[in-house]
């Protein structure tokens, strides 16, 4: 069983600007409503520590493996619950340059595994809302910084 969540938002800023805010992981506790902390060496093949808290849900800490780190373009990782195939989540953040001074920020995750059907409602509601809240806050951070610069 697989479940995919895709959210996106148009931000009035360049990919370079958004990337600089997005990858300032030490600042997440101060602004990010969904990913409360992200620690470790964020490089391909490395494991990082991620603390998430979807709206109206308990928090969770997991240690995904970084799959893609393409500066100003994409970051993705895969996290697993216990063993592969039980509950796997491949999370991605993409920045698409619209060529007009704006960027589309896409946050997505593909969930696979035996337990996915048990979490369908939580994924549809809480996780999606967490993505959307983070996207909005990132937009606000980038656009406000651009105005004050």
Automatic annotation (TrEMBL):
Gene3D superfamilies: 3.30.530.20. This is Polyketide cyclase/dehydrase.
């Amino acid at each position: 069983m697989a479940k995919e969540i895709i959210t996106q938002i148009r931000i009035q800023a360049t990919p370079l600007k958004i990337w600089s805010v997005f990858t300032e992981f030490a600042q997440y506790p101060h602004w990010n409503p969904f990913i409360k902390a992200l620690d470790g060496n964020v490089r391909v093949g490395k494991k990082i520590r991620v603390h998430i808290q979807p709206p109206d849900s308990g928090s969770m800490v997991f240690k995904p493996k970084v799959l893609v780190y393409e500066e100003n373009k994409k970051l993705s990782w895969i996290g697993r619950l216990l063993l592969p195939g039980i509950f796997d989540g491949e999370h991605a953040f993409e920045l698409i340059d619209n060529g007009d001074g704006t960027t589309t920020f896409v946050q997505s995750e593909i969930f696979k595994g035996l337990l996915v059907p048990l979490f369908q409602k939580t994924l549809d509601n809480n996780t999606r809302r967490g993505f959307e809240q983070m996207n909005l806050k990132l937009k606000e951070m980038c656009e406000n910084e651009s105005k004050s610069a």
